[in-house]
Design goal:
This protein is α+β, with helices and mostly antiparallel strands. It has eight helices and six strands, in the order ααααααααββββββ. β2 and β3 form a beta hairpin. α1 packs parallel to α4, α2 runs antiparallel to α4 and α6 crosses α7. The chain is elongated, with a radius of gyration of 33 Å. 29% of the residues are buried.
Length: 367
């Protein structure tokens, strides 16, 4: 390989190491269309306080369902964002490893070339004749036999050196090809991450705008409707008699995971976050199990796909309850029919009924 090729490999390695640290910066959230304005209350007599009208429950129920849909879509996009980020981090790590191999391979190739150069210089000093020629000119039988052994050893050493140089050059070529492939994957994951980020921000911005148009009394009634909906679902789940069959105790690791997760109660939800100050749903569960000494996938969808499934009646504290048909939400079962989870933007890590949302299934990290 010529000087230009060597410089190209080293430049490529350095470029890879530097470039992989670039991450997408947060962008601008997209605003959603403004919902219809609420009716303006009729003027009250002078000196009488004006109380804003409170929409009937059926109107607020429609708002609740709309918010639930928006935050669900945001959760799906958050999972896509987290997955793309995890893949990008993996590609970055692999690129760093390849860059190190390229640098080390070039050093090894340089050393082999130095050895080859030294051999050529030695031949020049001996009159330019190869060892075989010197051997043929000898008329001393002992010297001939001794020289023949050295020539054979030299030939083997030279062949081994040339073979190693060839392998090293092939390795460098393969490393460069692998680095290019990983770089393309990194770029694709970066674009996926950016697209998901924009979708998350758009959904959350629309939900926040919708909530911001509610008066204080409306927000209070909306919160009550949310609580009632969760309680209704939890009651229906408990009425199936499922809780009487759930008797298992937490494993040692499961107890540690539960302890970590419940210690985060009150901390705000933040999409894409995995602590220590804020969490999203799968950020909380993955960090809890990492703290317990059992790393698990980062996203709720991958947790559902990769971890062992168990029947609801067999679940024990520390198991993860996966929600919705698309596995877009996850909480950790802590016993007595409850989970600890990071619900959604605007909420904090809290405890709620395990049946308060549609259950897709249960997985066990320490199976």
């Amino acid at each position: 390989m010529g000087t230009a090729g060597k410089r190209g490999l080293i430049t490529a390695a350095v470029t890879v190491v530097c470039a992989i640290t670039v991450l997408a910066a947060p962008g601008t959230a997209f605003a959603s269309p403004t919902p219809p304005a609420a009716p303006t209350p009729a003027p009250a007599p002078s000196g009488t306080p004006v109380s804003p009208p409170v929409p009937p429950n059926k109107d607020l129920e429609a708002v609740r369902e709309k918010l639930e849909s928006l935050y669900h879509d945001a959760a799906v996009a958050t999972d896509a964002y987290n997955a793309a980020e995890e893949k990008a981090q993996k590609q970055s790590t692999q690129l760093v490893q390849l860059a190190k191999k390229i640098v080390e391979g070039q050093r090894r190739l340089d050393a082999l070339k130095d050895r080859a150069g030294a051999a050529a210089r030695q031949q020049y000093r001996s009159g330019g004749l190869p060892p075989e020629a010197h051997l043929m000119l000898s008329d001393d039988p002992g010297q001939f036999l001794d020289g023949a052994g050295r020539v054979l050893q030299g030939q083997r050493a030279t062949k081994a050196m040339l073979d190693e140089m060839t392998r090293t050059q092939q390795d460098l070529k393969q490393y460069a090809s692998d680095a290019a492939a990983h770089w393309r994957e990194l770029e694709a994951n970066r674009k996926d991450k950016e697209a998901a980020r924009k979708k998350v921000q758009k959904q959350i911005a629309e939900a926040e705008k919708l909530e911001s148009r509610l008066e204080k009394q409306e927000k209070e009634r909306l919160a009550e409707l949310e609580r009632q909906a969760a309680q209704k679902a939890q009651t229906a789940w408990l009425d199936t008699g499922v809780l009487k069959d759930i008797q298992a105790k937490a494993s040692e690791q499961g107890a540690k995971a539960v302890s970590y997760a419940t210690a985060q109660m009150g901390k705000p939800y933040e999409w894409g976050a995995e602590g220590p100050l804020t969490f999203d749903c799968s950020g909380l569960t993955s960090q809890a199990w990492a703290h317990a000494g059992r790393p698990i996938p980062r996203t709720s969808q991958e947790q559902w796909r990769q971890l062992r499934h168990v029947d609801v009646k067999d679940m024990r504290p520390g198991d993860l309850v996966i929600y919705f048909d698309d596995a877009s939400h996850v909480g950790m079962y802590i016993g007595d029919g409850t989970i600890v989870h990071a619900p959604r933007p605007g909420r904090t890590v809290t405890v709620t009924g395990a049946g308060s949302m549609p259950i897709l299934g249960v997985v066990r990290p320490d199976a």
